[in-house]
From TrEMBL:
This is UDP-glucose 6-dehydrogenase. It holds the Pfam family UDPG_MGDP_dh. It comes from Saccharomonospora azurea NA-128. One of its GO terms (biological process) is UDP-glucuronate biosynthetic process. Pathway: Nucleotide-sugar biosynthesis; UDP-alpha-D-glucuronate biosynthesis; UDP-alpha-D-glucuronate from UDP-alpha-D-glucose: step 1/1. Substrate binds at F118, L119, R120, E121, K170, F215, L216, S217, P218, G219, G223, K291. Its EC number is 1.1.1.22.
Amino acid sequence: MTGVDIDARKVAGLCRGEVPIAEPGLDALVAEGLARGGLAFTTDLRALAESDVVLLCVPTPTGPEGTADLRAYDAAVDSLAPVLAPHCVVAVKSTVPVGTTARTARVLGRPAVSNPEFLREGHAAHDFLHPDRIVVGGTDPSAADRVAALYDGLTAPVVHTDPTSSELAKYASNAFLALKVSYVNVLAELCERLGADIADVAETMRLDPRIGAAFLSPGPGWGGSCLPKDTRALLHTAAEAGVDFAVLAEAVAANRHQHERVVEKVRQAVTGSTEGSLQGSRLGLLGLAFKAGTDDVRDSPALAVAARLAEAGAVLTGYDPGVDRDGFPGGVVQLVDDVTLVAKDAAGLVLLTEWPEFRELDWPHLADLTHHATIVDTRNLLDSAMLTRAGFTYFGLGR
Ligand code: UGA
């Protein structure tokens, strides 16, 4: 198998076994492939000339007005045209708007098959080897079978469908996850008003297999490089098709509301009033990545909350065990590499990413370092009784 990329630095690193992203298990897989000789990396597209199947995995970020920006994708397709062998099938792994696979087939004059991925960041290697489903959307049955055959060693149901359904299934899955989290976040707000506990409400829901156990944890909002981008793109597709997808638009609005709600919670916790001013308040942020287990801060709810806190005048210091200065955009948060610096003289702490190691911090010591030992735990990660014993005034979500 040969991997081609236009980024020469990444390719040179990969040839030496240096994986440019933090994904548990991926280093070992790449090292094994390189050692066995079955895996190679290059910037030279001609290396694909003999390939039977080419997997297109080009990023499709959000473009203007929520549409997917297909410039990199289209450039990759164009550059493949003169290279591929006549029998080669193109499998589209990129998340692309409905119709893109069919267009790719026309541009390349050969069968193209939609074959979206459902890998979670931080679990990509595991999810690839243990998929819960494989979707193959192709109009040419033999091309679709050849793509499905790539996964022969894996046990998972295979959905054979047309490219349109396959492309839509990818967006539909991510948008549904977003919907679920927005639902539980609003429910957490309702719990606070009514005196209910979101942990018990969500636990009751989880036990219903029709609802499912996952994606029912309240937080500062859903983020990352996929859910925000894919909800925007699906809303755009629906609008273009003349379908009012209000339920999804509401989930997006609820997500923005969640960022604001966290800020108001912090204001109340730190100043003791809904009207209090955060001007000049030193706040320590615990966690900046969009979720635990990754170094990724793209579209991170932590940064969305931070931007609003800074707008309200707060002075922000942030610590994240996965994020270093190289991958951090800077801006309103001063990134530090020692958690005690986040606590030092802080008027309050805000936990934004659910890193399990935060549970093991020396909380009594951190309480001593703060100016006001107040903590808003937007992930309900910490044991409130333990934090109270450590000297903190603890605020969670939805309880
Ligand atoms: C998501 C999907 O889960 C993958 O199936 C998909 O393949 C991937 O996008 C993609 O399209 O490439 P990922 O971006 O890694 O994966 O992030 P998730 O694990 O889905 O988390 C998304 C956001 O929801 C995070 O900010 C997370 O903290 C938040 N979340 C998740 C909650 O706030 N509560 C929950 O209960 C679950």
